[in-house]
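Record 1 of the preview.
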Amino acid sequence: MRLIGLLILSILLFSFSIAAASLSATGTISVIEEESSSSVQTFSITVTDTVNNINVDTSSLALSDGDNNITLSFSPSFPIASLTNQTSNVQLTVNIPANMDIGKYGGPINISGTNTTGESLSTNLDLQILVKPEICEDGVIGNLNLDINEPDDGDDFKPNQELNIGTEIDNNDNDDLDVKVEASLYNMDKGKKILSMVSNEKNIDSDDSESFDMDIKIPTDSKYLKEGEDYMLFVKAYEDGNEEDNCAERFIDLSLELEDDDVIIESLTLTPQVASCGDTITASLKARNIGSGDQNNVKLELKQDALNINKISDMFDLEGFDDKDDNYRTETFTFNIPDNAEEKDYVFNAKVYFSDVSQALDVLLNPSASLTVSNCGLTGTTTSTSSQAMLTVSSLKSAAIGSMLSLPYVITNTGQSASFTVEFIPSGTWSTKQTQTVTVGSGQSSQFTISPIINSGISEGTYTATVRLLSGNNVLDQKTISLELLNSNSITGRAIYTKSFLDDLRIDNLSASFWIIANIILALVILGLAYLLLRK
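->
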């Protein structure tokens, strides 16, 4: 009986020793770095009783972008022969190579070992690696502090949304600072920037704070917007002109959430925007499905009651938003201005019908939906008899979104000295209408510059505008321009324009060959004069 008791006690003690052996590790390691950098992190392995042959398995980690690979090293190196009733610290070095795509990497690191009877023990360590874009040019530095108040981490957004970004900036410097805030939205799965926006400058007193609020318009045509992918908003506050001295940054996660049924009118353009009675107008409406569901039996409507215009398209289908090739459609209508139309500006109303819903485009805020009817009482000419003039506008190549556009133009006046009105009318909401009054003498050609502001928060692309020349209510001439609008990180400075014919007359534009020929001619003239003088 005593022998049986000792046997049972031995079995219990043996079972207890097996159950007592355990292996655990620090839960999560987070690494946030840019490409071409490294980070050293420390985690701990805790063992009760004795665990042998402790090793790590990193095969489940996502560490590649397809071309480059993040590497890991451990100190002390694995495997570790044995640990008994202790906590051991391990240094993990994460090396991010140059040209590594921005994005989220990592996953579970499996740590395993065996107890004294050879049974396996294991635990997981979660490794999170964020390879972020360069936000502050020289990294976080200086005495600015930044908090993102809106949106919240994890908030939803959708295409065509005005996303409000609210921040609070603290100036902990000894000096007052001129500060700007820049916000950029990234698709982290694609490693691409979708859009960015820079605030106006504010002066923040020392040991004081300021709020910055910006509204970013989420594009509807970006190939980097797709439901289910990973998005992050990066925000930085920096001293204007001295970012290398003061720059703070923060970031949050956002989620693209599409509605089931959501179709919008993306654009409405009228060509021309200035017309006379009897003229033919072409209207172009572009509808886009920004919802997740396919839409059948969609139709577009264009109305202008005063001109007795009511156009409705045939029905058509639109695929869901993720189908970039088939989620939009452009419909074109043509109509004539009535012969008895009143000379004034007319606003056109547009609607899209889908899923028993209609969405109206707020054309009152959209200059491209406005048509000016003028010169209905004139025949055969659009110029006045007392003042005839011609407009020449410099060709534009590109400009920065959010900047001031510098647009040179020339008025050639072949009539009497007169004052003229010049109007800049953008097609769409990328800028606002600008008006300028100038005076040009009789027989003179004079150059001027009009400077509209390019709106922030618009998508990169090619945009158009009409520049027209008026004398009183008479349109004398008009020109259409187009230019590519890019984010500020894609273009430096203001618009780049090609030279006008007046620029060719500048001395610094004359070629070297011209001066060589001119010098030869001058030398021949001098020799000829010397020869004539010597003959006398």
